[in-house]
Structure formats: structure tokens, C-alpha cells
Amino acid sequence: MRSTFLLLTLLACGNATQANGDENTTAAAAASPSEESTTVASWNGGSISSADLNKSLEIQLIQIESEYVNSRFEARKNGLDAEVAQKLMDAEVAKRKLASIEALLKAEVEDKVSEPTEAEIQQFYMMMKQRLRGASLEEVKPQLIEGIRQRGQAERFQAFIGELYVSYDVKLTLPRPEVPRIPISTDDDPSIGPDDAAITIIQFAEFQCPYCGRAKEVVDQLMEKYPGKIRMVFRDFPLSFHDRAIPAAVAANCAGEQDQYWPMYDVLMANQRALSESDLTRYATDLKLDLKKWNTCRKDPAQEAEVQKDFEDGSKAGVTGTPAFFVNGIFLNGAQPIEAFSEIIDQELAG
Predict the structure, then answer these.
(1) What is the tally of structural domains in the chain?
(2) Which CATH number do you get for residue 296?
(3) 184 inside domain
(4) SS3 labels along the chain
(5) Using one digit for the tens of pLDDT, what is the confidence trace for 65-119?
(6) Which pLDDT value is given to residue 37?
(7) pTM strictly above 0.90
(8) In a shared domain, residues 140 and 289
(9) Once rounded to an integer, what is the mean pLDDT over residues 171-175?
């Protein structure tokens, strides 16, 4: 019953994260006019008001509040998920006249997960080989079997809870709170989707970042899921430890001068470990670019300056890593799953 205990422990931990109070509570209430005019520093010949201070820290304060609101909502959502799952299992135990939730989980989770095959164990071993520091398959086989078993039980547990949601006609109506929006310009950067789309997603990313490559798959899924409703803008944010990020960004922008930005974007994202000069030239050749114009463009200092401007704008908006997204000004950091975008987009479209 060890794995059942683990599932129950995870459920209890999720339940413990539930927060209380109104979901629209924010980290800091809007300052009153009197507070805004309060002097927070003074010297002979000058002073700083609370409003002056808030203005100088505007983006940072918005980001802090946004992180608080999002974190609080996620805590409440996770807590709600755990609470609903607990109530549904209690109801199912009573319905089936079982002795306990453990008995229910044994019947619906443990007993429905097959023991791993030799092929699955071998495949898992190959996946984990680097972390096993040279241990042989036979040495770690019991741990691998337990790991595969627990992963299978976790997947079956989620599927079972989904079945209970359908069976009991569960409807979750926890509202997502209004999140502070960060003002950020689309500049004149490349975009796909209608200019007047209801949703504008500004992505700060670069071509040498593996997480950006994964994020591209999510963005592609979003464009398919919401046809005609999203405009996605790509702005460059080259990280200092990626030496080919700037050359790749310039290569893409100069391909854009010949109306081939997005084909080059696709190629670069698909080949993040092959961004040498010869690689870039090969991609340009395959796209049938005018190589003379393309190379002349790449040597233009204005191209690198444009990339640097994107980086500076992103930094001012609170971007510190890639990828980073602003969905109608709502900040999403990192390679997020499609569900994280859809929650915001659905609420934006409904509003």
C-alpha cells in the first residue's frame, strides 16, 4: 500500500496549500491621494514624494504584485483541486460501500497499473543512465521498477480523478483574479496573426535557448487553437552566455528584410545547436535568399542595435530570462504549458 499512501500524501499536501479570503485581494492596495502626496525623503532644496517613488519603481512594483496575485491564485486552485478530489473519493467510497479511500485507490489505481515490462525497464534505464553514474541495469533494477510503477500510478490516479469529475458532473467556477498589466510595446518587431487581434502575445526569447524551442511548440498550438484571435510578436532577448544568440537574431531579422523572417525563425528554432556562420548561410541558401543583400544587411550596425533595443525594453519590463511572455500585458515567465496561456486568453476573450 506504499504507493497509495504516497498518493494520499500528495493529495493532503495539495489540500494544505489552499488559501483563504477573497481572490481579488492584491498584495498592495492602491495608495490613497494623501498617501501619494506623502513626503518620503527631503533635504535642503528638495524632496521625494510617495508618488515619485512609486513612479520610479512602477514596473518592478507591478511585477511584484502580479507574481503575488498569480501565486495566490495557483495556491487556491491547487487547494480547490485537492479538496474536490477528496470529496469525490469520499462520495465514491460511500457509493461503493468500501472500507476506505485506500481501498478505492487500490481498486482503481494500483490494481489497474500493470507491472513494467523488460522493454520499459530497459528504456527507463537508458533515459536515466547519466544520472545513475555508471550503475548497471541489474544494480538499479528494483529502483527503476518502483519508479515506473509510481509514474504509472500517478498517471492512473489523475485519469481516475478525471473520470470522477465526469461522473459527478463537476464544474469549477473559481474566478481568475484581475492581474496587474505591464505596459510593453510591440515596437516594429515581426508578428504573426491579425494586427487587430483581441489577444496580443509579446514573446521575449532567443534562438540558442532550449526552453524557447519548447515554448515555440506551445505558441504554435495556441495559434491553431485560437485562429484569428491572437497576434504573436517576437522580440529578441539574447542571453549573454549564448554566443550565437545575437548572430542568429540578426540573421532572422535580415531574412525578414526579404519577407522570410518566419521561415528562418522556424529553421533556427529547430536547429538551436547548429548556429555557426556556415549553418546560417546554409539556411539562408535553402530559403533562396539573395545572399549578397542578406550578408550586407547582417553587417549593418543598426541590426544589432535593434536586437539590443529589444533586450533593453524587455529588461525594463522585468524580463530576466527566456522565454518570457506578455499576454495583453499579463506577465508569464518561462516555458509555460498551453493551459497557463489558455486560462488567461479565455478570460480575456470572455471579458
Answers:
(1) 2
(2) 3.40.30.10
(3) no
(4) CHHHHHHHHHHHHHHHCCCCCCCCCCCCCCCCHHHHCCEEEEECCEEEEHHHHHHHCHHHHHHHHHHHHHHHHHHHHHHHHHHHHHHHHHHHHHHHCCCCHHHHHHHHCHHHCCCCCHHHHHHHHHHHHHHHCCCCHHHHHHHHHHHHHHHHHHHHHHHHHHHHHHHCCCCCCCCCCCCCCCCCCCCCCCEECCCCCCEEEEEEECCCCHHHHHHHHHHHHHHHHCCCCEEEEEEECCCCCCCCHHHHHHHHHHHHCCCCHHHHHHHHHHCCCCCCHHHHHHHHHHCCCCHHHHHHHHHCHHHHHHHHHHHHHHHHCCCCCCCEEEECCEEEECCCCHHHHHHHHHHHHHC
(5) 988 998 999 999 999 999 999 999 999 999 999 999 999 999 999 999 999 999 9
(6) 83
(7) no
(8) no
(9) 92
For 272, the domain range is 191-350
pLDDT over threshold 80, residue 24: no
Nine-digit cell string for 23: 481572490
Same domain, 294 and 254: yes
159 and 306 co-located in one domain: no
Domain boundary among 132, 167, 202: 167
- Exposure string over 35-71, b if 16+ CB within 10 A, otherwise e: eeeeeeeeeeeeeebbeeeeeeeebebbbeebbbbbe
- The mean pLDDT of 233-249, rounded to a whole number, is 96
